[in-house]
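Mods, move this if it's the wrong board.
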Amino acid sequence: MAFKRWQKTPSKKPPEKTWTESEIKIIGWCLNKNIGVGISPDWKDDLNRWQIEININGKIHIDPNRYDNDTVYNKVNEYYKYYYDKHNK
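Not the wrong board. Structure tokens:
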């Protein structure tokens, strides 16, 4: 009996970010309103590039741009702030 040896699944380690208290407040408000912004690796790119997925009430929208480790969380924070300002009047 032969066993097929599986290759190790590819993985990319996400960059680390320390959120401020005001950012956490905005993110919490958005999550309570079913607005989520997350990152996922761009598997087609060999470099550490990330794509941003925006989930609004179960509908997923993908940002067409790709971001590197230094800028991805800044853009995530921009999206959260945009939806917070748009819906919280």
